[in-house]
Design brief:
Largest sheet: 10 strands, mixed
Shape: globular
CATH class of the largest domain: Mainly Beta
Order of helices and strands: HEEEEEEEEEE
Number of domains: 2
Bound molecules: copper (II) ion
Distance between the termini: 94 Å
CATH architecture of the largest domain: Sandwich
CATH topology of the largest domain: Immunoglobulin-like
Radius of gyration: 28 Å
Length: about 180
């Protein structure tokens, strides 16, 4: 008779204690989580801008074009000539376009009489020199095209260098 009576008032207490414990755990878990999320993000942002020279990648572009492809084909190449406007190498490390799910920097290499293209982490625009993006050499590829490209359309393509500077090329779509 005494045992069930003791057990009855204890149960709500136990539930309350568990709820408090759960709340404390949740608060305890959330706090360090948001701390660790904020700290590296702040560090990354600081590291991403080592020089205040974000902004424009020092180059001019001529003869930019995106090769028109039939509607069923979902990848294409981008060609252009880049000319450095400053006496320093520019290391291009990224490329993107809103027209494509993915864009890649590529190099064409001949080895053992076989010519093939491979992805590369960077393309270098030499100081006061030019970088030619062409079908026989370095180039940019757009993959997973979001819509069929129409000749006459202009596609923005953004190049990023290792200092975070960007250059957006407005490349017309042209038949090969
Ligand atoms: Cu390619």
């Amino acid at each position: 008779m005494t045992a069930p009576r003791r057990a009855a008032p204890r149960r709500p207490l136990l539930i309350a204690a568990l709820l408090i414990l759960a709340a404390a755990l949740a608060a305890g878990l959330l706090r360090p989580r948001s701390d660790t999320a904020t700290t590296p993000a702040t560090q990354t942002a600081a590291q991403a801008t080592p020089t205040p020279a974000s902004g424009s990648l020092p180059a001019t572009v001529t003869d930019a074009r995106v090769v028109a492809v039939p509607p069923g084909i979902r990848e294409t190449s981008v060609f252009a000539t880049l000319r450095a406007t400053r006496d320093a190498d520019v290391r291009i490390t990224g490329v993107s376009s809103p027209a494509a799910g993915r864009a890649m920097l590529m190099v064409t290499r001949t080895r053992d009489n076989m010519t093939g293209m491979t992805m590369t982490d960077s393309l270098t625009l030499p100081a006061d020199g030019t970088l030619s993006l062409s079908d026989t050499g370095d180039h940019v590829m757009l993959m997973n095209l979001k819509e069929p490209l129409q000749p006459g359309q202009t596609i923005p393509i953004t190049l990023t260098d290792d200092q975070g500077r960007t250059l957006t090329i407005q490349a017309p779509v042209m038949k090969p």
